[in-house]
Amino acid sequence: MDFELNDDERSLQEGIRSFLTGRCPIEVVRANEETGGALDRTLWRELADVGVFSLRTDGFGMTESVLAFEELGRSLVAGPLVASHLAASVVAGAGDGSRIVGLLEPAEPVTMVEHLASLDDLIVLRNDGIFVVEPSGVIGVLAERPLDALTPITRLDDVPDGQRIGDAAMALQWRRDGMVLTAGLQLGLCLASIDLAKTYAMQREQFGRPIGSFQAVKHMLADMLTKAEVTRAAVYAAAVNIDGRGDSSDLMQTARMAKLLAGDSALFCGKTCIQVHGGMGFTWEVDAQRYWKRACVLDTHFGNSDEHAAAFSAAL
Amino acid sequence: MDLQFTDAENSFRNELRHWLAGVIPTLPGEPHRDDWVGRRDYDTMWQRTLFEAGYAGINWPKEYGGLGATPTEHLIFLEETERARAPYVGQNFVGLLHAGPTLITEASPEQKAFHLPAILKGEHIWCQGFSEPGAGSDLASLSCRAIRDGDDYVISGQKIWTSFGHTADYCEMLVRTDPDVPKHRGISWLILPMGQPGMDVRPLRTMEGSTEFCEVFFDEVRVPVANRVGAENDGWRVAMVTLSFERGTAFVSEMLQSMELARDLAQLAKRITRNGASAWDDAGLRRDIGRICAELDALWALTKRNISQAQRTGLVGPGGNVFKLAYAELRSKLGELAMHLLDRASLSIDDVGQLPTHAHVHGRIHALSLGIAAGTSQVQRNIVAERILGLPKDR
Ligand SMILES: Cc1cc2nc3c(=O)[nH]c(=O)nc-3n(C[C@H](O)[C@H](O)[C@H](O)COP(=O)(O)OP(=O)(O)OC[C@H]3O[C@@H](n4cnc5c(N)ncnc54)[C@H](O)[C@@H]3O)c2cc1C
């Protein structure tokens, strides 16, 4: 047993991180708000070039993929990253980034689809199978003010039928893999929120000293780190399990564990990051709100943490 | 990353499992939980049994009679003993996991030769005399005084919360040998034989009514200078050595029990009725149990990360504080949920009406101590914030 990153895993993750810090620093991410969150096709292809979508069709596993997605989450990269990654094995052009593939899950009370205007293909993930739809034919109402300005969202009146590309078993597997990849993004959000909160806590002074020297502030940060590290263990364990090097045979249950922990932790770290910033935390300018809003978006993907808590108990 | 065990680790497990299957049925019945002398005998009997089979001091180096096992093998040992319902380390805890490791790195050859084999064979029980009424979280402010008089130290003062103080043979003790220097620099680490003239050991009742710890009073108690470990006034560093011995395995047995208890709680909810319906019909309850079980599984994964890190670097690192903080909270949540489910049955600490009340109520009370003993949760948060995140000290 060795549940630490090996050298290859570490260098893969560092490679993705250095690509992202160079190519999409937070200023670039923010600038995208001016275009209503329209996806940048050049960036999408470059993401494909570093392997974000094709890792698993190129012979890597869920472990490497989750490490890459952790970095994507940390850098707040927007778009249907998980959907395009999942589609790489069945939709031509998804893996090399020439086509942007989105995904929707029919939901109650309303079905909402993200980034509709930027999509080349839209996957509909249902319990009975996986279907692909031509996005230009999908009719819906674009929300004027999406919660996350980087995630444009459209409400659909009818869920399109589409062409079947996978059966129920495959749908279940996509849901499971989708949970774990999304949990990777959420873990990255936790780490970014901690970095931001910590930097501010060291700089901002009140009562003649950095607010990070106040114990109440320290304890908020300690709680963030604690949640993030427990989440990291959960997410990595779920990924390693899927790759057949795990300690549990119930891959769905460990995927649920990861999504549940990551969902709760990303929301917690996001809101605590806002609190650490005081009034600045409530402004548009400071990124704390961006991390929290993305955490809200991702919590709804592949089942939110309450749903997974209920589903987890069903297997007990 | 790989969570699977190697062939060598698997064969270590298989041999151990085989041995346990033979020995466990031959053990005598467990003494009553408040029979501390009986428990001492039982715990030392088990330690002797381990010693004879070559499993004593699993984490100790081979040259000191230990098994020299890796942290992962230690994990396997704890998994298998838990699975076989083998006795716990019990009162051997301080000797095997605190005093012993400190002696191994810091003691003189004579001290080692006398004490280490006795700990391994279950001949000596140790206790830890660190905390005082005036020195808890701020341990370095301790004031129990040791004054040099020829070849002896003469000790006066008080220790408190000394677990197994009434059954131990030896005490690892921190005393103030110089009151005139900054607090960390005037402390010495002593081996104190229990039962000396001038000592008064008074059991304290815990909130559960048991007497697991004591207060110990010292009135001019003489201890030979030869019993000091490390240099005079260097005791703080010696005490810290013990901490660096932790390999991420400290809570493995507890974690396994908690995971089982949480799953038992789901089964309990299925057989309890509430307002004529099964308690399990309550979606809110199911969600709460699901969340707690998932969070425990995540902490189990963190345990394995910590152990893997210790295996690679020799240290647990930040994961240790993070684990303790998260575990204390989660264990409390589990206990609270169980008491809600048991409702009025939880008003008895012992089992009532065929319900496993004791396991859950005792567990809930135990959880309250997890946030206090060995560094309170607030102190753990300070450590995480200052040493891991690098926030400024407030002192
Ligand atoms: C079951 C049990 C067994 C024990 N066994 C032993 C033993 O065998 N040997 C031994 O030596 N000791 C033992 N202890 C003692 C234990 O280590 C201390 O209780 C612990 O270190 C806390 O010290 P205290 O009780 O004096 O609490 P205090 O330090 O007085 O703390 C009281 C409250 O103040 C808070 N606080 C204190 N300082 C700070 C700070 N800087 N920042 C924020 N909050 C702070 C604490 O978190 C706590 O909530 C045991 C304790 C328990 C509960």
From TrEMBL, chain A:
Q: Acyl-CoA dehydrogenase/oxidase N-terminal domain: from which residue to which, for each copy?
A: 7-92
- Protein name, entry field: Unannotated protein
Tell me one Pfam family matched here.
Answer: Acyl-CoA_dh_1
Q: Which keywords fit this entry according to its UniProt record?
A: FAD, Flavoprotein, Oxidoreductase
Its source organism is freshwater metagenome
Which family does the record claim for this protein? Belongs to the acyl-CoA dehydrogenase family.
Q: Which GO terms describe its molecular function?
A: acyl-CoA dehydrogenase activity; flavin adenine dinucleotide binding
Q: Which Gene3D superfamilies match?
A: Acyl-CoA dehydrogenase/oxidase, N-terminal domain (1.10.540.10), Butyryl-CoA Dehydrogenase, subunit A, domain 3 (1.20.140.10)
Cofactor names from the entry are:
FAD
TrEMBL record, chain B:
For activity, the cofactor(s) needed are: FAD
Per the record, the similarity remark reads: Belongs to the acyl-CoA dehydrogenase family.
Recorded GO molecular functions are:
flavin adenine dinucleotide binding; oxidoreductase activity, acting on the CH-CH group of donors
Q: What's any one GO cellular component for it?
A: plasma membrane
Classification via SUPFAM superfamilies: Acyl-CoA dehydrogenase C-terminal domain-like (SSF47203), Acyl-CoA dehydrogenase NM domain-like (SSF56645)
Q: Start and end of every Acyl-CoA dehydrogenase/oxidase C-terminal domain?
A: 233-389
Task: Give the UniProt keywords, A-Z.
Answer: FAD, Flavoprotein, Oxidoreductase
- InterPro entries associated with the record: Acyl-CoA_Oxase/DH_mid-dom (IPR006091), Acyl-CoA_Oxase/DH_mid-dom_sf (IPR046373), AcylCo_DH-like_C (IPR036250), AcylCo_DH/oxidase_C (IPR009075), AcylCoA_DH/ox_N (IPR013786), AcylCoA_DH/ox_N_sf (IPR037069), AcylCoA_DH/oxidase_NM_dom_sf (IPR009100), Mycobact_Acyl-CoA_DH (IPR052161)
Limits of the Acyl-CoA dehydrogenase/oxidase N-terminal domain: 7-123
Q: Where is the signal peptide?
A: none
Give all residue intervals belonging to the Acyl-CoA oxidase/dehydrogenase middle domain: 127-221
Question: Which Pfam families does this one have?
Answer: Acyl-CoA_dh_1, Acyl-CoA_dh_M, Acyl-CoA_dh_N
Q: Which organism is it from?
A: freshwater metagenome
Give the protein's recorded name. Answer: Unannotated protein
Q: Does the keyword Oxidoreductase apply?
A: yes
Asked whether the keyword rRNA-binding is assigned, the reply is no
